[in-house]
Design goal:
heterodimer, A: mainly alpha, 67% helix, B: mainly alpha, Alpha-Beta Plaits, 2 domains, two-stranded antiparallel sheet
Chain lengths: 43, 271
């Protein structure tokens, strides 16, 4: 179980890191830095 | 445990939604920190939010086909390290429901009639509204658009109060979302965290990590006297002595406080 936990935590961290370099950060920032009309019920 | 948890909940809510200029001027924070996902349900259209909602980001990455790996990575990381500890300690909407539940009004019940079926609704919301519809229709974040009460409260209410132009755009979808928000808040008077128990897709995601997460409950079976005090104290109506890492458990710690022999404890280890 210990090995599994280490693998899964490292896997998740790697996904964040790889996702960051593939433009994930910018994609999330672009969406989150503007008012989301759908989210507030106006879209 | 209870007081410590409340302090953490208030502090985290204030810290993650502390952009006061936004509340005062009806604007949202647009700094680079918004590219980082917060752990709990926290609308990124909230004027005070410093980070992004993981559920909103997941939907937008699915319909925009960008950043899926990044957002799923965040969800898995929070899930693997904390599990539903996020719900119990770091979710602003969970805090709000708890505060309303404390109001001494009406009869408090641990579950609603039809509990078994209602508990399945959150799975439908996750698979249909968060994953399938945004991915295949590629048009909008369906859960945010038609269900999310946190978006209505943090984004909708605060922004429409502050921006007259947005107030004039209010229509039937907004009214529908206000009805959902009101229903959840009224239900919170009677049931502990009804949204978390029955409707929250983020809770489903984190709940699936509860058995695996680094932070979890440990029951010392040799010390346990099977008195049932933990079950009685559990606001989610679970039995921690039998299933300490149930997917519904939000790690509120009520069972730890209630145990007369201190058989239940938080464990944080990779083992």
């Amino acid at each position: 179980m210990r090995t599994w936990r280490i693998v899964l935590v490292c896997g998740a961290a790697a996904m964040v890191a790889v996702g960051f370099f593939l433009g994930g950060f910018d994609a999330v920032w672009r969406k989150a830095s503007m008012v989301c009309l759908e989210c507030i019920g106006l879209g | 445990m209870g007081k410590r948890r409340k302090t953490v909940q208030f502090l985290w809510t204030a810290l993650s939604n502390g952009y006061l200029y936004g509340f005062a001027h009806g604007k949202i924070f647009s700094g680079r920190m918004k590219g980082i996902c917060l752990p709990g349900l926290n609308c990124y259209s909230c004027p005070g939010a410093f980070g992004a909602c993981p559920l909103g980001s997941l939907q937008s990455s699915l319909y925009g086909r960008q950043g899926i790996l990044y957002v799923v990575g965040f969800l898995c990381l929070f899930g693997m390290v904390l599990g539903r500890f996020v719900c119990g300690w770091l979710c602003p909407f969970g805090l709000l429901q708890e505060l309303i539940h404390k109001i001494p009004l009406g009869k408090k019940v641990k579950r609603l009639p039809g509990d078994k079926w209602l508990r399945k609704v959150k799975y439908v919301l996750l698979f249909l509204f968060v994953l399938i519809l945004p991915f295949f229709l590629m048009d909008k974040p369906w859960f945010c658009a038609y269900v999310c009460p946190q978006g209505t409260l943090e984004g909708g209410v605060f922004l429409t109060l502050g921006v007259p132009a947005l107030r004039s755009a209010v229509g039937w979808v907004y009214a529908w979302k206000v009805v959902i928000l009101a229903a959840i808040l009224v239900l919170s008077l009677f049931v502990y965290r009804p949204f978390c128990r029955y409707f929250c897709p983020l809770g489903v995601i984190y709940g699936s990590f509860n058995k695996l997460s680094i932070l979890r409950y440990k029951v010392d079976t040799e010390s346990c006297i099977s008195c049932g005090a933990c079950h009685k104290a559990c606001p989610m109506d679970l039995d921690p002595s039998r299933k300490p890492n149930d997917a519904l458990c939000v790690r509120c710690g009520a069972c730890i406080d209630a145990c007369p022999v201190k058989a239940i404890s938080f464990q944080h280890s990779l083992r």
